[in-house]
Amino acid sequence: MNRRTFLRSTAVAGGGMMIAVYLDPADVLGQEGSRAPAGGANYKPWAFLEIRRDGSVVIRSKNPEGGQGAKIHLPMIIADELDVDWKDVTIENAPLDEQSFGIQRTGGSTATPINWEPLRQCGAAARQMLIAAAAQTWFVQPGECATGSGRVRHAASNRTLGYGELAAKAAALPTPDLKTVKLKDPKDYKVIGSSARNQDVPKIVRGEPLYAIDVKLPGMLYAAYEKCPVYGGKVATANIDEIRKLPGVRNAFIVPGGPDLTYTYPACCVGVSLHGGVAIVADTWWHAQQARTKLKVTWNEGPTASNSTEGFNTRALELSRQAPAIKLYNDGDPERALAGAAKTVEAAYYYPFLAHAPLEPQNCTAHYKDGTLEVWVGTQTPREGRQVIAQSLGMPENDITVHFVRMGGGFGRRILNDYMAEAAWIAREMNGTPVKLLWTTASGPPAITSSRPASTPQAASSRGTSTMSRSARARSSRRIPPSAGPPSPPGSSRTSRSTHRSSRWVSRRVRSARLGPTARPSCIRGSSTSWLWRRARIRSRSASRCSTRPGSSCRTRGITSTRSARRVS
Hints:
Elements: E1 6-12, E2 16-22, E3 45-51, E4 57-61, H1 70-82, E5 89-93, H2 98-101, H3 111-138, E6 145-148, E7 151-154, E8 159-162, H4 163-171, H5 201-206, E9 221-227, E10 234-238, H6 240-244, E11 249-255, E12 262-264, E13 270-272, E14 277-282, H7 285-293, E15 297-300, H8 309-320, E16 327-329, H9 334-339, E17 343-348, E18 354-355, E19 363-369, E20 372-377, H10 382-393, E21 400-404, H11 418-429, E22 435-438, H12 445-448, E23 451-452, E24 455-463, E25 478-479, E26 509-512, E27 524-525, H13 530-544, E28 552-562
Parallel strand pairs: 4-5, 9-22, 20-21, 25-28
Antiparallel strand pairs: 1-2, 2-3, 3-4, 6-7, 7-8, 9-14, 10-15, 11-14, 12-13, 16-27, 17-24, 17-26, 18-23, 19-20, 19-22, 24-28
């Protein structure tokens, strides 16, 4: 066992036990070193499992929940290895503390791969300790005991003890080596793979306060925020004095905004700087919105005002003709394979920007008082959100407490935390008074701010007659904000289509060539992330249907992968 990875048990008041897995975050699937705590024996517990005297089990769920099920499927892993019934499990949200719990992030379908092994070990280790406690009580060998439904059984004597009865004794036993604990055979899973009860569903059905938008604090005010329709623009003038006189309005002020459009954080997460605008704080959100309709602002739109769809399309075509900037994977020579093929078919496709518009509008409740800040927010990346606030307000992260609350959908949009920075800035201006900032999707795409990448992958496939030849290549580059349609084929006068619906253009060319050499190359290149390449590759293969045919060659080029100016990675 790694000296930095170990288990610790603790007796709790009332006769129960708590199991904590201590892991070095740098050792958990290569998590970033910047997230790892200092070494030595001071590592904090990474996952908690509490067994109470009455036999009930409490498991802390560490990742943000936005409808994808992380709040229940991570505890299900522990529950199955522990061998308890799901009905006896209570789930509690873990606080934001990545030194204790490892990476706390939702996105990229990574929750299960990152947490699978350590959470299984946590449950299995607790089960092993409970068996040892029962064996000592009965003066038998642990191998003679079995578990099920939260009880330890000794078949030879037909005796049983509940986990709650054994918890205090088990907590006093030496903790096992996590690397040697016996894990369940998948065929014995009872909770994993089952239709487990989601404890939040009854509350959702009844409309009980559960989401970030439902957060209410005593004396709380409401805020609306008007931003420039051009990314990176700032306020030139605004009728602030008139707005302050309107009914229900407590304050109105200009927020200057940060110096940069984006900040890039470790690994895949991106945080966005504070964007300049006008904040209106009122007694109710309706008062704030009514005042917003009377706001008159002139904007300094800045350099991004010169961006255009035509410019993006022209640049996309230029990049498609250039050599790849970065080679991500190389297995052969696609150019040679294609050049030697009997026949080649080429196709180009386009899929547009897709606006991020989760059902629950972006919102954040913030309370600034005496130099410290507390926020309640639905976010996929709470730690990055805290960083955005710290950089925007110039305050230490240790003075910022983030409570991440259930999200009404995320789909990647809540990886960005610009709304957290806005709420924090407004709360600081209203020192001592909690403020809820609530966006509205009716404000249109500029308020939504972020889009899924648009891309124009191209595919070239070739067919031979007597040899096996297959190849693939992808090229990718970034272009900035949404509204850019597909680049038109050379000589075409095609115009861009809406960025909020699916569209594609196809040009095919068939040429004759000599028979190519036997090869199976696959060269993937690009300046984008691998998931973007995979998306382009799936579309390209689906179109050409050449990837598994004998005597075929396939080449793909993802010309552009794009995000809005507020999300450049």
